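Example record used in the benchmark description.
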Amino acid sequence: MGLALVPTRTMYLIYLKSAVFPDKMLERRWSDRYQSAKEVLNALDNRQTYKKTIMSSSKTEVSQGSGLPPTQFSPDQNSGNPSWKTIALIVLPTLLLAGGIATLESPRIPFLCGILNNCAADKPFNESYNSAVKQAADSRVLGQNAQTAKELQTARDRLKNAIDQLLSIPPTAKVHLDTQKLLPSYQSELTAMEAHLTREQQAEKLLEEAEAIATNAQKETELSKQTTAWTEAADKLKAIAAGSFVADKVRDRLAECDRQIKDIAISVDLFRPPSGSSEPVTEPEPSPSLPNAPTPKLEPLF
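Model output (structure tokens):
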């Protein structure tokens, strides 16, 4: 009478290790799982072969120890149990279908969307965040390459809009923490850009006022008034910062004011009589032949 083989604890653990579903089918990330049914079937066949080898080795060791012939034992030889391939063909399509449904519905499933970072509720806030970051980058480039106050103002407006978008993201949004990290630097850049824009606008205003005064100076008929107007225009030009966008225009206009003032000074000097050549004008004596002749009237020199 043959001795039946009683499975040991080691044999039982080996059987559990080689359960129906390979570990790779239960990986957390979709890309780490099997990508086709053929890969699953090959893995199951390999596990089946490995399990039979382990069980056969265990039976041989027990038989050698008892002096009895090896006893046939396999958990897959129980009557009525389906084969590995039958189970796989039933379970695999179900898993694939469930995975596809989970992927499509994951944006509306809090647990899954949190892992996949595709929650439907966060989608508009993510879009606002990405748009704000892009606008801020564009504003920085435009501000660095601005040549006029108008271009600088456009850069300022874009940066301000980016900040407003970040401020509109609520604390419940997943990207709220990222917005809080960006806001201080963006607000600092906005403050500096607004100060620069104020200086440029003031420079353009002074330049326009100086040009208007210079235009009126050319219409004056009196040299003294012309000198006063050109001097006033020059003072406004000198008040403009040297590094402003209109610095080249200011330099040209200031040179014109100095030239006009010097020309007027030369004209005044030409028409002014020399101070050392002036002599008192004496009236001529009356003629003896014309005792009652009137004294001739002298005309002014200028």
